[in-house]
Design brief:
AhpD-like, 135 residues, mainly alpha
């Protein structure tokens, strides 16, 4: 259960700052769907606008990484951080951007492998090889 009330579309329509962000989310994503995270953040309109602007600037702007790869990275970081909501949301987004079942399976294996080896290296306190340092 959320710690704040999720804002309905009718409530959002009555708050110009929230309506503007919800309208932009719909336009950028080409969908009428507004995720619950945005509905929760809408309780703080300036925070909603700031968060959406940041997400849009990283996830929706042109760049060297394609949109599917960005979503797959988001899945990995969300899994590492234990954010179930984000794992679900970005898995759905990655699938919508073309991630196959095979790619998803490989991604999960990489996430699991990285978690294991990160723990081993951290536990062993292995020093970084000088060859890996930027000079």
């Amino acid at each position: 259960m959320a710690t704040v009330k999720l804002m309905t579309d009718a409530e959002a329509e009555a708050i110009p700052e929230v309506k503007a962000v919800f309208d932009d989310i719909r336009a950028v994503r080409g969908s009428d769907f507004i995720n619950n995270v945005w509905r929760a953040l809408a309780q703080d309109p300036p925070g909603l606008a700031r968060t959406w602007a940041h997400v849009k600037s990283v996830m929706a702007a042109p760049g060297a990484l394609d949109p599917k790869t960005r979503e797959m990275i988001y899945i990995a970081v969300s899994a590492a951080n234990g954010c179930s909501y984000c794992v679900h949301s970005h898995t759905a987004a990655a699938r919508a951007k073309g991630m196959s079942d095979e790619e998803h399976g490989e991604l999960l294996q990489i996430i699991g492998l990285a978690a294991m080896t990160n723990t081993l290296v951290t536990s062993l306190q292995v020093p970084v090889d000088p060859e890996f340092e930027v000079s």
